[in-house]
Amino acid sequence: MARFDLPLDELRAYRSESTEPEDFDAFWDKTLQEAREHELDARFEPVETGLSAVEVYDVTFAGFGGHPVKGWLRLPAGTTEPLPLVVEFLGYGGGRGLPHENLLWSATGRAHFLMDTRGQGSGWGAGGDTADPVGAAPAYPGYMTRGLDAPENYYYRRVFTDAVRAVEAARSHPLTDATRTVAIGGSQGGGISIATGALVPDLVAIAPDVPFLCDFPRAMTLTDRPPYREIALFLKTHRGRSEEVRRTLSYFDGVHFAARGRAPALFSAALEDETCPPSTVFAAFNAWAHEHKAIEVYDFNDHEGGGPFQEALKLRWLRSYV
After folding, report:
1. Active-site option among 67, 112, 238, 303
2. What residues make up the catalytic site (predicted)?
């Protein structure tokens, strides 16, 4: 697919038309307050992996509603002092996989916490282990339309709350340094990291790659590729519910979280990305509130974005923060 979105000079000036709810902050304050009424109950169980350079812990903590959420904590072997902490969130449909996977960040000498995404883990990779026990009104297959009838019921209310609790759980381990915590992720994980960057006030940096869940009004009409297409197909059947759906999504739009961004940020976008169109990524980047921000643009790439090239850039960039 050749380029289909705005030219790069227009992308750099683009602003979303997504309308922020007046009670956006109150909604999220209440959501997190309710989540914290449940004990975090973070448990770290050592896992035998056969690895000699990395120690892995099977983590369980209480997320939204007190529901158990899984994760992996990976530490360089022999760690005795608290380490900088990288909290990572996963792309759409993936799960935390197996304990010996995803060793890049622990290989840098940092602690690495990978959150499982509730209800997901069967679309790619080696699977997930976290259920989503909450039911929903009629929805299109996938996750994008679960609970679209009201912000209180929407699926990503649970996921974003899990993400905040994941940071709290990872920070509770004695070998992680809470004062040097960053959030990263690609695609859905990028969108989650943007929300986390707004909801957790003291992260030192975030790095969302080709982030999903941004600028819903444009995304749901610009691309016919899933997952955004799930919303359009839901509305194709449920005629006349567009305003209701847009209202629900406005509480979860990365653009509004970005306006509350409190840490330096490194974004990435790909100009041929039909899954997360570049204008939706730039909508969040341009709204990001912290003055120290940068975006890496990959001219001829689709949703794979920069891949290992972006990883190399993040490795260099994060040295300034952790």
Report:
1. 303
2. 187, 273, 303
Query: Partners of 115 in the beta sheet?
Result: 71
Query: Model confidence over 208-256: pLDDT tens digits?
Result: 999 999 999 999 999 999 999 999 999 999 999 999 999 999 999 999 9
Characterize the bridge pairing of strands 265-270 and 205-209.
parallel
Known active-site residue 290: no
Strand segments (E) across 158-316: 176-186, 205-209, 265-270, 293-298
Q: Write down the catalytic residue from 18, 187, 250, 279.
A: 187
The single-letter DSSP state of residue 7 is -
The H or E element that residue 58 is part of is strand 54-62
Output the CA angle 320-206-245, nearest 5 degrees.
165
Please give the C-alpha separations between residue 211 and each of 156, 187, 226, 250, 295, in angstroms, as whole numbers. 15, 4, 14, 16, 12
The SS3 of residue 227 is coil
Mean predicted lDDT score pLDDT of the chain: 97
